[in-house]
Design goal:
The protein is mainly alpha-helical. Helices cover 57% and strands 4% of the residues. The longest helix has 18 residues.
Length: 215
């Protein structure tokens, strides 16, 4: 711990005692254990964001558990209401409970990427050095829609091998049947009560399909 604290002090001008406290709290967060030394709400939010960027929502479960234990301990001991820290914990819990579909999981990861882009080069270097090279896994509850295969076929036939957005030819053909590779996209998502119909679908090349989701 002392070596890490000294590095924070020398490279980032963090007070040595504050550095020791931060490292100790980090260890408790990783394990989901109660910690007694208090961190500010912005500092705690920063830690939780780092966990989220590294491992997604599953990486927040133990830290959030540890944070609630700390809040309970500190409020009882000092007869106070840690309102701002509770708000941090509630936002964290909201992230944990929000992923209910593959689309949302993908969006969650994309948000984490956007956060990571905002880090400085030094922050990214430190983060990569400390991060595990093996990804964590977690179970997601997924609602699956039984799509009508005839809608897919008719939409692809209508497109006739041409993207219906940029009007370029399909970039390649499928190995299975040599048909032009296009992806069928619902204009109004099924998750948003859109119809699984030919009228609500469009055949897109992979680039245009990604643009529809992330552009």
């Amino acid at each position: 711990m002392s070596a890490g604290a000294r590095e924070l002090e020398s490279q980032y001008s963090v007070n040595i005692n504050s550095a020791k406290i931060s490292i100790a709290v980090y260890g408790k967060l990783v394990q989901g254990l109660e910690f007694k030394r208090a961190l500010s709400s912005p500092d705690m939010e920063y830690y939780l964001e780092r966990f989220y960027v590294e491992g997604g929502t599953s990486a927040l479960e133990k830290p959030n558990k540890a944070l609630w234990k700390h809040i309970s301990y500190y409020e009882k001991k000092n007869d106070v209401n840690l309102r701002s820290l509770r708000q941090v914990a509630e936002r964290c819990m909201g992230k944990i409970n929000s992923v209910t579909s593959f689309d949302e999981l993908d969006n969650s990861f994309q948000a984490a990427i956007n956060k990571a882009r905002q880090n400085s080069e030094k922050e990214r270097e430190l983060f990569l050095q400390s991060a595990s090279k093996k990804p964590r896994s977690h179970t997601v509850t997924v609602k699956v829609y039984d799509r009508n295969p005839h809608v897919v076929v008719v939409t692809l036939l209508r497109a006739n091998g041409q993207c219906e957005k940029c009007f370029s030819k399909a970039p390649f053909t499928r190995k299975s049947d040599n048909s032009p590779y296009l992806e069928v996209h619902h204009k109004i998502r099924l998750a948003d009560n859109g119809d699984d119909s030919v009228e609500n679908t469009i055949a897109l090349c992979p680039n245009c399909h990604r643009e529809k989701h992330y552009g």
